[in-house]
Design brief:
By secondary structure, this protein is of the alpha+beta class. It has one helix at 28-42, and strands spanning 2-8, 11-16, 45-46. It has a domain at 2-46. The protein is built from one helix and three strands, in the order ββαβ. The longest helix is centred in the middle third of the chain and has 15 residues, at 28-42.
Length: 65
């Protein structure tokens, strides 16, 4: 099962292949939070989840003085 975001501008909602649908939100970010919660509770996959890489990715951290 996959969870994805659908809708038009200012009416974004999360949907799942299992038939679940989240509430309608103005922002896409809020709909993505609903999708993430549903995916975590049920074990379904997010359609837009980034793939994890097994390679070591380097990060440069700077500190302001």
């Amino acid at each position: 099962m996959q969870v994805y975001i659908a809708g038009r501008t200012f009416r974004q909602s999360a949907l799942c292949d299992c038939g679940w649908s989240g509430t309608s939100h103005w922002s896409r970010g809020s709909a993505m939070v609903d999708a993430g919660i549903h995916a975590a509770q049920t074990g379904h996959l997010l359609a837009s989840a980034p793939l994890l890489r097994s390679q070591d990715s380097r990060v440069l951290a700077l500190q302001a003085s």
